[in-house]
Amino acid sequence: EKDKLVSEVIRYILFKNQQNFGAPIKREELTCLVTKNYHQRSLPSFVINAAREKLSYIFGYELREIQRVRPSSNSNKHSSQP
Question: MAGE domain location, by residue (predicted)?
Fold first, then answer.
């Protein structure tokens, strides 16, 4: 079953990449795909990591996690120094 889930995630990533080349795929989308039928807490991380390894080994893809950068409230204030 885990191999089937890994294959589903890989397939989803490949199709999504074909539709929008280079566009990020949210981890939440992959997690929803995995937890659709299974509700184990650690399963999404396991499946996504296994998919990451297979994508790298088979297709030469590198799956990266991007951290969202949120501007702090201090950076929005303008300095009045000359």
Answer: 9-80
CB atoms within 10 A of CB 59: 12
CA angle (24, 9, 25) in 5-degree steps: 10
- Cβ atoms of 63 and 52 within 8 Å: the answer is yes
| Confidence at residue 50, expressed as pLDDT on a 0 to 100 scale | 93
At 26 the three-state DSSP class reads: coil
Please enumerate in sequence order all residues whose Cβ is within 8 A of that of 2, keeping only pairs 6 or more positions apart, or say none: 46, 47, 50
Q: Which helix (H) or strand (E) holds 28?
A: helix 27-35
Q: If we measure between CA atoms, which residue out of 50, 47, 15, 17 comes closest to residue 30?
A: 47
pTM for this entry: 0.72
C-alpha separations of 70 from 5, 76, 77 in Å: 32, 11, 15
Averaged confidence pLDDT in the chain: 82
